[in-house]
């Protein structure tokens, strides 16, 4: 079946064009596609499907044409992905499905508006998405355990759950080969992504991310927003401001409006197009023959 691959600040994704909604991938198939040995290797899988062809997105079809069916690398469902949706929009424009400008894209966290600049724009490929306002669902006292140490954590919801921890040095997080543990155990019933954050200066944060269902990733868009939200809450800051967020894969920008709405901006690059063998494809009919309007 056809695919595209790309990254947002080196946060990598596999895009599977399925406009008519005919693919029904199992958890195991998603895992194998995301794996570097059995698939193309990616931090997440993005199925590109029209809202009218996706039962969980039909209600949003009046607002958005396309639905981002996001899956974590372990096969679990994802509600929102800041870097993923920016790359998703870049793909739609590059593939000729949409014109440059502002696109409404449906996600499991609701409709998000993404701006893809035209080729002549001076933003040099920077794609931005209005992320909405962060929520702080609690509980108030969460402890995160990692690398043999314990830190207080803040639960920030950006359409997906985050545990944000402030550290003196990013190396304090250790290797991140083992997922951090949150206490109490029921604080995150659906799992969580962890941000270890170091404050570099006014409007400047640096972080490492252990992403739910993946492990340590080079970047996380919702994680960058969650880190900014937790930093502002800790400083009791409600002013409009712009932030630079440095990650292993590069720099993202988070702009916070006076009402708390966040806009995330950064690179979104399609790096490859091709055809990939679907796991178990020998038992299937050819999916390529079923797909319509694919570029």
TrEMBL record:
Superkingdom of source: Bacteria
Residues where substrate binds: 11, 72, 82-83, 160, 211-212, 221-222
Keyword Isomerase: yes
Residues carrying the site annotation Could be important to modulate the pK values of the two catalytic cysteine residues: 162, 211
Main location: cytoplasm
Pathway(s) served: Amino-acid biosynthesis; L-lysine biosynthesis via DAP pathway; DL-2,6-diaminopimelate from LL-2,6-diaminopimelate: step 1/1
Locations listed in the record: Cytoplasm
InterPro entries: DAP_epimerase_AS, DAP_epimerase_DapF
Keywords: Amino-acid biosynthesis, Cytoplasm, Isomerase, Lysine biosynthesis
CC terms in the record's Gene Ontology section: cytosol
Enzyme Commission code: 5.1.1.7
Gene3D superfamilies: Diaminopimelate Epimerase, Chain A, domain 1
GO BP term, pick one: lysine biosynthetic process via diaminopimelate
Enzymatic reactions: (2S,6S)-2,6-diaminopimelate = meso-2,6-diaminopimelate
HAMAP family reported for this sequence: DAP_epimerase
Protein name: Diaminopimelate epimerase
Gene transcribed to yield this protein: dapF
